[in-house]
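Practice problem: NADPH--hemoprotein reductase
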Amino acid sequence: LTIMGEASMDPNSTVQQDSLFSMTDVFLISLITGLFTYWFFFRKKKEEVPDLPKMQSVVAPVRDSSFIEKMKKTGRNIVVFYGSQTGTAEEFANRLSKDAHRYGLRGMAADPEEYDLSDLSRLSEIDKSLAVFCMATYGEGDPTDNAQDFYDWLQEADADLSGLRFAVFGLGNKTYEHFNAMGKYVDKRLEELGAQRIFELGLGDDDGNLEEDFITWREQFWPAVCEHLGVEATGEESSIRQYELVVHTDVNMNKVYTGEMGRLKSYENQKPPFDAKNPFLAQVTENRKLNEGGERHLMHLELDISNSKIRYESGDHVAVYPANDSSLVNQIGEILGTDLDTIMSLNNLDEESNKKHPFPCPTSYRTALTYYLDITNPPRTNVLYELAQYATDTGEQERLRRMASSAAEGKALYLSWVVEARRNILAILQDMPSLRPPIDHLCELLPRLQARYYSIASSSKVHPNAIHICAVTVEYETKTGRLNKGVATSWLKNKVPDKNGSNSLVPMYVRKSQFRLPFKPSTPVIMIGPGTGIAPFIGFIQERAWLKQQGKEVGETVLYYGCRREREDYLYREELARFQKEGVLTQLHVAFSRDQAEKVYVQHLLKKNKENIWKLVNEGMAHIYVCGDARNMARDVQNAFYEIVSEFGNMSQSQAMDYVKKLMTKGRYSLDVWS
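Answer key — structure tokens:
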């Protein structure tokens, strides 16, 4: 057995040893080869690293952001920057840049957000150059969103702008505390940096007649340009189309915009983050009437923001993109004899322009007039001037040209016939039977339909997945007997909760605000908000109630609210009563303006409780919040505070005014107002 075992084992033993040896060799060789290969490629990568900077993709945007290079490349002399929140400043900038051709110059309108403004110091490299700034002021003296970086740069810059010629036109509203703050700052700061002002600062007032202010400034601005640059007018104004029409007869409907603000199909395929160019489609889960009587319709809406990743704080604003009334759109189509479902594009004739289309294209005329264009506001004079050429009746043509002129008679006619009569483009077409412009030129001329902002009427601590809106529908009869309706409020009124229907969807995004509760919950707050001005305070009170439930010490929470009649439009009456019962709302003062012979407003109640107000402000270091009408209420409330401070602080009127201004500077007197 042993021999057999040996005999049977020996051959296999030899094979196994040979095999084992060769496998070891292979393993070692493979290991060495692998290590060498890994080292070789690793070493090669390290050697290639220094070559990476040769790639130009990182550097390219810097070149693209130079407006100087662009101006040189396209033969421009004049650049008109705009700081615009609602589109008006951008519109004025476009008009000024178009004007330039009448003087043998070439202009371009520019968004400061898209360019490197430190290049202003190089503008003198271009012959007969000039920078114009159309700057709107937003909120309480703030720059518009697109001018924030420019504002920051101006504050920090120590650039030498001695070769720069400039002019500024500001867009503001006199009912606001910081009238035209941005225009004034840009004008002053550019001069401080050594730039040469070639024409005086223009101050447009939207509470008066902004269009007239602009025209008056503009007609004196161009002669000053001629004098400084040594140029002169080349002749009559002429209508120059900025866009060319392309009609699409055979187009893939998946490539056609149907109301999206930015990315094609963004409403079908929603992707965060959500903002002005990428709004979120929120479902309306509640839409109820708040008032019990009266002619007006006051409403409370709740928008579902679940799964949107949208975050908001009490005091923020919600922006909604409305749609124009389909009957107005249809009437424009009928008057102009147009098939509104024609798919078209308006393409910029200036191929170098960053703005390829006036609104998302390709799209239909119906979509453009419904979602993209403002058809309800009275058109500006430049629109009337451009349209005049299409009036076949000489009397109508002359009337349009006169209203668009800078003559006193023309301005007066425009003010009475268009502005005060609140004639929109449809009314003008109806009242001028011979005026039948091509619909594509009309679409080119009309301004963009803007988002509407509302103070959020909820707290994210209590409602993290919902945003509440409080609004009143706008509806009035014009001097011509027409019934005009507010675009957004009429549209929101018809948004009914329906989980499966598109009629309940609202394109929206959140805009951050400086209107904030104090950092310490124990700090007292005095809130003044008549009418729909109560909206942010519902959110504030909800948040204070939540903080109290968390065991935090919550300070005095005082509300001064006002409405017309107690039994008619006392908004959120039940909610306020509940908050008062729970001890969160420590004081509730309501002014019913029309329930008695003499009208009573919130400022009257403030004066009535002046001693308590002074104690809260002076000893309690209370924060004051005012929300609502800027034209009368906010000013009257501020005057009431001047009186209270003067009387109980033993101060003169000017000292009391300084005291209130300091409260504002310290963030203890905040405004969220509109006109």
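Discussion: Residues 67-229 form a domain with the Rossmann fold fold (CATH 3.40.50.360). Students who identified this feature from the tokens alone can consider the problem solved.
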